[in-house]
Amino acid sequence: MQDAYTLEAKAKRRRARKKAVQRALVGYTFLTPASAIMIFFIFIPVAMAFYLSLFEWDLINPMRFVGLKNYARIFKSQDFFIAVRNTFYFVGVQLPLDFCISLGVALLLNQKIRGLSFYRTVFFTPVVTATVAVSAVWMWLYDPFDGLLNYLLSFVGLGPYRWLNDPKMAMLSVIIMSVWKGLGYNVVLFLAGLQNIDPSLYEAAAIDGATPRQQFWYITLPQLSPTMYFVLIMGVINSFKVFTQIDVMTPGGGPLKSTLVIVYLIYQQAFNSFRFGEASALSVLLSLFILLLTLLQRLFLEKRVHYN
Amino acid sequence: MRRTLVKKLIIHLVLLTLGAAMVLPFLWMVSTSLKGYHEVFRYPPRWIPDEPQWRNYLEVWKLAPFGRFYVNSTIVAVITTAGQVLTGVLAAYAFARMEFAGRDQIFMLFLATLMVPTQVTLIPTYIVMSRMGWIDSYKSLIVPFLATAFSVFLLRQFFLTIPKELEEASIMDGCSKLRFIFAVIMPLSKPAISSVALFGFLGSWNSYLWPLIVINSNQMRTLPIGLRYFVSQQGGGSEWHYLMAASLIVMLPVLIVFFLAQKQFIEGIAKSGIKG
Amino acid sequence: MKKAAVLVLALALLLAGVSTALAKTTITFWYSLGGNAGRVFQEMVAEFNASQDEIFVDAVYTGGYGETAQKVTASLAANTLPDGGVIPAAPLFTGRVGNYLIDEYLRGPKGLDMDDFYEEFWNYNKYDGCIASLPFNNSTPVLFYNKDILRQAGLEPKAPETWDELVEMAIHLRDWAAQERLRNFVPINMRNQDWMLKGFILQNGGQLMNEDYSAALINEPEAVEAIEFWVSLVDQGLMPAGLHDRARDHFIAGNQAFLFDSTAGIGTIAQTVEFDFDTAMLPGNKQRAVTLGGAALTMFPSTPERQDATWEFLTWLLQPENVAKWTVQTGYVPVRKSVLESPEIQQLFEEQPYYRAAFEQLEYVVSMEHFWELGALDEYLVNLISQVEYEAQTPQEAADELVRLMAEEIERNR
Q: What is the domain range of residue C392?
């Protein structure tokens, strides 16, 4: 015979469970709109991408299963290695240039000078303008026949260069334009980070007799490291995804494919050559690589970041 | 004292030089956009055109349906942003204030989507759109972006800072959860919501690769893609004055909004970085 | 009561009669013609619609060749194809997926008088040996030359007829420009360089593909010689490397003596240039030869009623008087032999003599059927030209690589 105590406990548990179920239902309902979008447009496509990469398909004729052949083909294709090389070239030059210039500008701006917001606006303006429009303007600047850049350089006896039409200069031209466009963003981030540094740290160091140089290395940089880390991670991820300016300024991948980057190769394979299977395989590889890079950065760099 | 003055002078000099480099391309763009066809190629090139050809802008407007591009971009951006805010608020509220089984795990899943690069979802989503016949329509530009983990994350972080007492008061009042969200939470979350709206709007407005592949007809193009095809239509060749005018037409609205709302813009960006 | 019933019946019959009279078949028709050609096409569609009551053509502009191709591909996948269109590389969207409606209709009771069309044009519209689309807006490459510049440089204002003459004149121009210290002057440049190179290869007696399109023959001696000739133009400073997309604009700007471009550009160029120019057939070497370009009239599967209606429209477009009108107003070459002799064309030659060369060149047209890997071939040719112009590869190396890539591509598809 169960005593009243356990009966009551059981009823309580039943009520509690009912409530939990109710709460879950309400919670899930609130989550449904966002989750539906995520499921249909992120999770399922990711799974599809892996699946698709094992087939050959041009969207018109039936799909053909080829297993890992697409991946094998990618690693044997010249275009892939060219794209990898070009992408690394882009990231390897654009990122440090951007980082250093924007950090430098931010440091200068942090020197309590007049016109801070004016300068900040000037540097940030290219960031908000549409990349397509900026690309068109730079195409005109870079024109081998009548462009302004060649004209200006002629005053110092340089040029004329063929910029976007020269296999040896095309990528560099894209990089210069990209740095010009993007550095304002990091200037703002670095400036905010700098302005967030507790001035009392500097005062204490000055009292201890630290030189400005020492102050920079032992206070400024460490305090700025969270921002630097953020800039680096975002910079790497975004640089690997470069596409727009290449499609506008050097459609087709540039002279001798010198501006063919991985995302552009994916685009070409899918939408020019209609090889959706191979393009999916490429995109899977790119994504895994970016993931790997981010994880590596987390592992090795995060411990050097100085959080307060 | 003098050393500081000299130092400040040098700093200004450097900043002005770099600043000039930032501004020069824009000035040259405006200059070219006001020139006549033959003046564009005059050597040596001049900064100020003989007679400003304002009609270049009219010509450009006729050569490609920029008005239509604007309409398309606006419709897509507004609906997408509204969607992101709505879905974001609902989901963020659930994550921040409700308790239910699996809440934190699902939140982790949401965050995981931030690590997924757009490239990998590009092709499968395109295929789905194509099979459903959504290619070349607003649906394909809007629906996939009606919710982002970024907005959910931002809003949740903000909601966590809202005092719980408010909620308890509302339960006392017998206020339904939804009404509570719209009447109380949202007005309180203006800064977070405007950040979400800003990022969402800009993201949609400047979106390039996705509209490039899902839109085929000129009438449905958004501004960036319309301009890109204008570039290739002009052969990337001699009609630079039209091309520069078109570029300015595309840049102008965002530039105006930016100059008016500089502070919010820049501060929004700055804050996003500090959080890290 | 009876009267009311009779009245209602009469009314119903009347309505039925009226509605059958109004029952039109509407067909959707995509066209990839921009600018002037697009306008002319729209006018012709309006004329067709006004001339009869049974069919209404809803014509939609779908952008240039590239965009239209993408749109058609997406529609094939989603099954939202129009009833017909002016489609680039049409056989790849019809024959390749088993749609030979055009061939069926041609053999049917309402077929066309095929003999009046050039054999080459039928060839161009075949896939796997069967006709899969109809010729309509075709073009050939043509040589534009700036007579004013030639005169200034002390040359006869006439076009070269052979490769050697071309080089001779170009060298003279190059040296003259250096003497005059002309900024930005370029003797020769070519647009659509893959198309032009195909012409050069054929002009040297070479071949592009073998009989059944299963292998590329571009690494054979005659073809490689043609590529070497191309490179020599760059080496001698007669043609800039890698600036082909600027060729037409540079010519229009008056900074270029020779332009190799499509007849489809004659209209635009004639309207924009401010100097005396003319056109000529491409210079030959062992022979004269050019390949065809352009899109084609297509029909997609639909209801029998709409297919018949589409065929009506297509045959109307190809009636001699309409072909003549189309040719005269757009500059595309006439696809019918009889049209070449017509008074409208003769008048065109009188008023705008620079159309003459294109039409006279028709007897030198060599055409290929469309085959699956045609798009790949064009892409590889563009790469080949890039490689040899920038001296990243020798002509033989580049040609061998192209043949190898084509073999892989063909292997993949068969």
A: 141-291+372-413
Q: Mutate one of C386, C411, C414 to test the A interface: name it (highest A CB count within 10 A).
A: C386
Question: Is A166 within 8 Å of chain C by CB?
Answer: yes
CA distance A184 to chain B (A): 9
Q: Is the pLDDT of residue C256 over 70?
A: yes
Q: Do C74 and B235 touch (CB under 8 A)?
A: no
Q: Are residues C86 and C168 in the same domain?
A: no
Listed by number, the residues of chain B in 111-140 with a beta carbon closer than 8 Å to a beta carbon of chain A are 113, 115-128, 130
Provide the CATH number for the domain formed by B34-272 in this structure: 1.10.3720.10
Q: Report yes or no: C70 at the B interface, CB cutoff 8 Å.
A: yes
Pick from C324, C353, C382: which residue ends a domain?
C353
Shared domain check, C135 and C146: no
Q: Residue A139's closest CA among C250, B236, B239?
A: B236
DSSP state of C282: P
Question: Is residue C34 domain-resident?
Answer: yes
Q: Are residues C239 and C388 in the same domain?
A: yes
> Do C237 and C167 fall within a single domain?
yes
How many angstroms separate the CA of residue C23 from the nearest CA in chain B?
28
Residue C410 sits at the vertex; the CA angle it makes with C408 and C414, to the nearest 5 degrees, is 120
pTM equals: 0.83
C35 touches chain B (CB under 8 A): no
- Three-state SS at B143: helix
- Among candidates C63, C67, C249 on the partner chain, residue whose Cβ is nearest the Cβ of B238: C249
Number of CB atoms found within 10 A of residue C159's CB: 22
Q: pLDDT, tens digit, for every residue of A75-87?
A: 998 899 999 999 9
Q: What is the pLDDT of residues C132-157, one digit of tens each?
A: 999 999 989 999 999 999 999 999 99
pLDDT of residue B229: 82
Of A123, A138, A284, the CB nearest to B120: A284
- Is there a contact between A108 and B11 if contact means CB atoms under 8 Å apart? yes
C47 shares a domain with C36:
yes
